[in-house]
Specification:
Strand content: 15-25%
Mean pLDDT: 92
Radius of gyration: 15 Å
Distance between the termini: 12 Å
Number of helices: 5
Structural class: alpha/beta
CATH architecture: 3-Layer(aba) Sandwich
CATH superfamily: NAD(P)-binding Rossmann-like Domain
Strand order of the largest sheet: 3-2-1-4-5-7-6
Low-confidence stretches: none
Order of helices and strands: EHEHEHEHEEEH
Shape: globular
Number of strands: 7
């Protein structure tokens, strides 16, 4: 166990600002994390409101813009870097530059795999918190955090998938987001073990 760490000096990159990323961001700001990089290329849609931290009056806005306004309402002093782009191997390193921890919060399996592979290969010393298996009505207790490698933490049940026709419910997505946020906080505070 280590001494307390000032979270206001911490920098976290959140890749994806949907159900996971938007909720992780709000929890990290509430915990006192001082700097976030928000990366997403998508707009707020009506179908997002069931599980993402957006509101009807934000429909059509870029997720990074809408989320930034909410986060500044929580803490006007949080430093936000907004990157409204699609994540690819060519821009990933620049997008996460300077991050103490990276959060993978994207939807597609291919994008998730690319982020994990690139981060593990090119940024092995930067902790990565990822998610896999949040869909459906499985027990909330099945969503857990596993330390899969030295600097890789994976949240979820590792099996349920929207590609199998399972829906996403706010309750299960937010449980996973809370797991991701708490894993980030523990790592930043010097508690890498689960």
């Amino acid at each position: 166990m280590s001494e307390s760490h000032d979270l206001s000096a911490s920098r976290v990159a959140i890749l994806g600002c949907g159900g996971l990323g938007s909720n992780v961001a709000s929890m990290l700001v509430r915990a006192g994390v001082g700097s976030l990089t928000l990366v997403d290329f998508d707009r707020v849609e009506l179908g997002n409101l069931n599980r993402q931290l957006y509101f009807r009056d934000e429909l059509g806005q870029m997720k990074t813009d809408a989320l930034s306004h909410t986060l500044w309402r929580i803490d006007p002093n949080v430093a936000l870097r907004l990157e409204t782009v699609c994540i690819c191997p060519e821009n990933l390193l620049e997008l996460v530059r300077g991050a103490d921890v990276i959060v993978e919060a994207v939807d597609g399996a291919e994008a998730k795999a690319m982020i994990m592979n690139e981060c593990l290969a090119r940024l092995p010393d930067v902790p990565l918190v990822a998610a896999s298996g949040l869909a459906g009505l499985g027990s909330a207790n099945a969503v857990v955090t596993r330390r899969m490698a030295e600097n890789l933490y994976v949240v979820g049940d590792l099996t349920s998938d929207v590609r199998d026709g399972l829906p996403l419910f706010a309750s299960r997505v937010m449980i996973a987001a809370a797991h991701e946020a708490h894993a980030v906080i523990r790592v930043l505070m010097g508690y890498p073990e689960l």
